[in-house]
Amino acid sequence: MKQYKTEQITEVVEALNSHQIIAIPTDTVYGVGVKYGDLQDLDALKHAKNRPETKPIPFMVCDLEMMENIAYVDNRTKKIVSSFLPGALTLVLKKKESVSDAYTNGMDTIAIRIPDVDFIINLIKQLGSPILVSSANQSGQKTAVTYNDVFEQLPNIDGIVIGACMAGQASTIVDCTKENIVILREGPISLEEIKAVL
Question: What pTM was estimated for this model as a whole?
């Protein structure tokens, strides 16, 4: 497994463009991801994690504009984005038709977030594409919060960016497709906080 420093954005971009699976420290826990755009990369990522086919991999984007390229974002969601993103919040939205159903396991929704990490934002900007990022652990095993956790659980991925995770807790997941928003996974941001900005 090749090791990268956060200053080596260009090399990490090249690795992702070369269809490699790379682990990255985020503002929540360690993530492992591939560039969006090649379904074989998605299959390789799922295989590395032993991830069940029923669980789609979330997307990371660098800004609202990139989010709107792959999902429908209404005014209510834009308020949530402006208040909490970048940050530890994953939004479930209706996906655009341009995104293959294979990326969302046949569902018409997509999970997206903007991480509060300059390295990842700049990485996605340089890639010019979203990245598909899941937690860097074997499915069902303990969450990876350090790079040693990643080495232990995912020894066969292509590379890892060495760094520290900020929260050590996975993001809040909120379903924005319903009339009343619903929390699907509790995390650092509460439903009360979200409702307060709406």
Answer: 0.94
